[in-house]
Design goal:
Length: 73
């Protein structure tokens, strides 16, 4: 398994797990960042910027390290 912060620009992945405290999980879920979502990384320089559907998100590396993903080919 890979963490979201390890993906490179342009890579696709499916979120398989979100680790961390309940508060962090709620914050991500309320934004639409949920398990089984497909993400496409836009940039991993500075903040991790990615898309889920037509929505764009930017989160810090610490938060991205708590999101487990599997690459999609």
């Amino acid at each position: 398994m890979t963490m979201l912060d390890q993906l490179k620009s342009g890579e696709l992945a499916r979120i398989v797990a979100i680790d961390g405290e309940h508060e962090l999980r709620q914050k991500l879920f309320s934004r639409g960042i949920t398990e089984d979502s497909i993400v496409r990384v836009i940039s991993s320089y500075g903040l991790i910027t990615f898309e889920i559907g037509r929505k764009t998100f930017a989160i810090g590396h610490g938060m991205a390290q708590k999101i487990s993903v599997i690459k999609v080919i």
